[in-house]
Structures are given as structure tokens and as C-alpha cells.
């Protein structure tokens, strides 16, 4: 790779001509004070532009600022120079020499000692010296086919079976980059039993075996015999794709094949709107959601349509700005700049490597993921996540960081009318709330192939009991009409506060659409918890319609003959011994009862949601906190980290006590007044507070890092008008922003999930473009031949005229 200096703002400095070393030295002298040497903790960007997906492989290469260590493509480096005055950049450019392609192909070829499966990337492991004479205790231990957990801490992932005594214990991060408490290693130190196999990796071809004594992964030539000692038959253990392993291959492989359209010759697609996203390691949930989001015109206009203005007004570090990174991602997906058919040299390279299929590289969302997931305990990890939860997280970020009057997430926003009727007085209460997606229950009782399902279940249980191969999958077939009917059916409410009785009473709740959104997102509630609180997934096929009519679900309001309940709020009752403790909780979040938090987390709820539940219920125990979770789990910020004013967080946390989501993020007037009293404009204060989630200290930092904010008069006027509009709306409330219309919709995208739970598996997205379906499977974008619309998890509909 070629590296050379580049100077901007200096005659001849960026013209590309070669200069003698003395000339370069003379030009650098006045700029030497600005050149820094990276220190520990400095973020150095040398692989990707902050505004685009240009890299050292791009035609213009990459320019790294020698002061900020931010990198820029040729199109954007001068923007950074104009904004900062930094003149010295290191130019990185990688050149491909066609004459060396054959040699490179030889050097990068796989070892003949590796498995020949092109998707297998195993190291050449040594045979453990303990394998031939391994002692195995005759203690009667038999390992079940599922439901494993650590014997010491109840963890259900990263579990290792000790091949001497059959203990199932958790590993530590250095075994396979996943979490654990190190109980498998502790057991070895206590007992000296050297070999363990990772549960979930066992296939007829082998498994992941680790030697504690040799401190490395090893091969066990007698693994089948060692596993049989504990009742595990390797020949009946199977693996699924993407490294996810289990002993029920047929159900999941079938799902993987159908959703990914395996076995069908798929034609790669190139050009604007057909750019894939590289998988960063369980980032497919993010990729699928973002592909669907940027197929919506409102998001395209809000970000890509405003690209020059957003980039020009980005902060000095654009990698830490939401709107900049959204615009960068949108432009990368839609421009076609990173989705071009292979050129001659690339085709030669593929032929040399015997890769005859055109290779699609896609773009890497690493910078985007790092920003949108920072401070979020789930999305910042490398674990698989729920695409629905990420969708709501993204909506929350869009709401918080909207520019001017544009808020593209309004297209998803709708009002839900909830009607509750008191079972004793027969009186009713009507309330409205904001929502962003329709959650459709799975009506398993309406399956059209019940007899087939019963026969399959009996055969499956018998096969498991006798350690025989499992029968071929039978998937439940559910009519969409039955799921829609289940959505509209009344729901019993046991602890409804009846203001007429001034006491809790039983009630019946029904929900209807008080407004229909422009874009309707439908989530199929496939995921649930078993009796042991282990997440599981309904394996169902639902005949989702291309045209969806939900006009019959329109809310009707108070009906003739109905009597409303009095508008009297229930009293707030706090046990005497908890009042002081609750007040302390609202002052210092550090005293949260972690034991209650862990009890809730073990049920499968997000850790941050559990912390908020314990916090807002005043440490009154897991049972009370569980009730808080049930009430708030549908809110978009349910899994957001707990933040409080004065602790570096949002000023809206107090509102969360009363169920408010805080998505509008209108800054409190008292904080706006503090900033304006310092001499800043009102629109500056509002934008700064919105960009920092209403944190005063961070808002001031934001203002000082955006000195150019006032230069664009149109931008200032738009922001001022938007601020004035918000003031008017506060003085004269007009209700939440909704785009009501007809309830007739057409399907244009859906996201599908493969695997047994949202914590594992893989997501792909299908989008209808230019009259045909296209499959987006990470970096691969192809014309779809058989879109599996019946197996989707999230469906995206757009409104059509009735």
C-alpha cells in the first residue's frame, strides 16, 4: 500500500505532482505544530472515510488528518480542510497489480490439511495428549438434548461439558469471545479434569474441544466414544448454518433454506439501491432493518436529500453525529457507488481463486453501528439481537436527532385507542397512546393442519426418548385472518383501576386504531418463553396478504348508551418502610437492588429494562418491578439505559415514571432559558439540547463545537420556525404528530428470522423494487425467485388509495 503526505491550502500541495524531499520539508515546516503522534486512547481512522465508504482501495484512496486522525475520501477531504484549517494529511492508496494475482491466489489458498468445505475455516489443531487415556467417571450422568445450564450460575450460553465427570459449566470470554463466569476453568482447577467440549457445537464431523491443561483448542480422536459415555450420539447431532449448532437439524435447516432461497440460482443485482451490508458478526438484524428503512422515500429525502447541508453542518468529529452517520449509510446504500459489477481485474482474481460467481463486497456499517449502539448494553455487544427492538431504538434516535421540521419517523406513528370496561359497573374509559408498529399474535389454535402437528409432536418425543433421528419438520399453517381476529379480541385486565369504585377491579380491554399511519409495520409475535423461561419461537407459516385492509379496526370512540368512568386518578400508595428508600432512589441510581435486577434478567428481559423497573418501583422487590415491566415493555425506549438528570443522562427520565416515552424530546423551557441567558440564540439552544438528549452540560459542549451553526441563514430560519411551532403547540396542544388516512395497505418489504430465538440465528430482508422482489442477505443482493412471504417476522406496508 502506498503512503505519502498531502497538503491542502498550499500551492502545489494537493495537485498530485511529485516533489523532492526538500520541497516537502519546506512546505511542512509551518504546519509542524499541528502534526500529532497518536497517543493511547486516540481513535485513529485509517480504513474508512467519516462521510462515505471510501477506503485505501478506492480510486482516490483515503486521506488521514495528522491532527484529528479522522479519515476522508477525496470527495470530502477539502470539506474537512475548510472547516478545521488542518492542512496535513497522510494519503493511503492500495494498488492492485494484475501480474501478481495468480501468485496471491496461491499464497492465500487453504491448507490441504483443512476441511475442503469452502465455508469452513478451521485451524489445524493438535491432538490432545490426554485424549487416548482420558478417565471418565461412571457416575450415571446423562446429558439431555436441550435445556442446558451452568451447574453453578444458571447461565444458558457458552456452556462446556467436562468429558471426565459430565459437569456442564460456563466458559470465559477467551474461549470463544462470548460471555461466562469461568466456572468450567474453576472446575478444572479444583478437580484437574483436562478436556471439555462446547455444547451446541457437536456434529457428526466433530466439535469444539478445549484442553485446560494444554491451554488451547485441541482434537479428540475418541470424541464419539467420550460423548457416548454421557448418552450423546454424535451421529445424530447436526449443525446449522452460520456456526449455530443443535441436535434438531431438520426443522431449522429447512427454514434456513427456504428463507435464503437456497438451491435457487439467484441473479446478483447492482446499482443504486442494490448495495449490501457486510456482516460484522451478528449484525444482520441491523442490516435488515436499515435496508427496509432506506427503501422508504421519506427517509431518503430527509437524509440523502439533505446530504450537503448535513455534512456541512456536522460537528468537528462527524463519526459521533447521528444525522451524519445516517446520511452516510443512506448514501452508501442508495448511490450505487459501492454496488458495481466486477471489473476485469476482479474477474481475473475470482477465476484464479476458482470463485466463478460474481462476488459482491457491500459496505461495512461498522462506524454506524458503533454510534447507534454506544451506551446500549445489548446493541453494543456482538450478540444477535431482536430486529423489532432495534427498529424501535432507531425510531427513538431519529426522534431525538431530527433536523428542523423534518422527522421521517412520523410515517410510522399512529394513535391507538384503548377502551376498558369495568366488569362491575359496566362503565368505560377511553384513552389514547402513540405506537409505531402493530404486534400481531400467532393464533396457534387456528392451525389448519392440527392432526399433522399432533402426529409430528408424538413422533418427535418418541425419537428423542429413544435417541433416534428426529422426524421431518411439520410447520403450523395459520390463516392470517385468524391472527387479525386474535389482535382485535378483548383482553382481560385483572388489576384495572376503576375510578367509579375507587378500587381495583377486573376489566375488559380492546384496542383499535385511532389513526392509520402512512407506513404500517406489522410484527408477528413468534417469540415467547417456555415454562422454564427459555426463549423459544413458534415455527409457523402465515399467509400474509399483499394487500391489507384494516379499516374495520378504526376506533369509534364513546358510543351511545356508554357511560364514562369518572376522571379520577388512583392514589399513589407507597409502603411506609419504602418511602424513604424510594426518595433516595430518585436521587442516587447507584443503590439499585442488583439481586432483583438479576431475578428479572434471568427471566429473559433486557438488563437495562430490569434496572429501570427496579429503580422506578423504589427497590420494592422483583415482583413489583415485574409488574412495571409488563406495563412498559411495549414502549420504544423499554431497553434503553437508565439515565437521570444530574447523572449525565436525559432530563426526561422522570417522565418515564408516568409512562411517557419522551420520543418528542422537546427541551424543557427552563433549560432553554439557561442557555439563552448566556447569549446564545434560542434555536441554537433547542438544537443543542435535542442533539444531546436535553443534557445541559453536553448541550453547551455541542454549541461550542458547532461555531458554524449560524452561517446558513436558511437553516437558522427553519430551526427558528420549528422552535416557534413547538412553542405554539405547547401553548395550544394539537396532539401527537400523525399522518392519518385510509387503512388500505400494500406490502413492500419484510424481514425474516432463522433460528430458535432472537438471541441467535440470522436475519434477511426482502424488498419489492421496480416491480420485483429482491433479497438482501448481508452483502449479497440478488433478484428473488421465491420470496418466502409466509415466514416473515416483520412486515412493512405502505398506504394505498382506497
Structural account:
The relative contact order is 0.10. This protein is α+β, with helices and mostly antiparallel strands and about 800 residues long. The protein starts with a strand and ends with a strand. Strands 14, 18, 22, 23, 24, 25, 26 and 27 form an eight-stranded mixed beta sheet that branches. Strands 6-5-7-8-9 form a five-stranded antiparallel beta sheet, covered by helices on one side. The protein has a four-stranded antiparallel beta sheet with strand order 1-4-2-3. The longest helix has 19 residues, at about 715-730. The chain is built from 25 helices and 27 strands. One of its GO terms (molecular function) is cysteine-type deubiquitinase activity. Belongs to the peptidase C19 family. It comes from Canis lupus familiaris.
Count the DSSP helices: 25
Helix percent band: 25-40%
Measured on Cα atoms, how large is the radius of gyration? 29 Å
The pLDDT mean sits at 79
Shape: globular
Query: What is the SS-derived class?
Result: alpha+beta
Beta-strand percentage range: 15-25%
The total strand number stands at 27
Distance between the termini: 59 Å
Function: Deubiquitinating enzyme that removes conjugated ubiquitin from specific proteins to regulate different cellular processes.
Organism: Canis lupus familiaris (Dog)
Family: Belongs to the peptidase C19 family.
Main location: cytoplasm
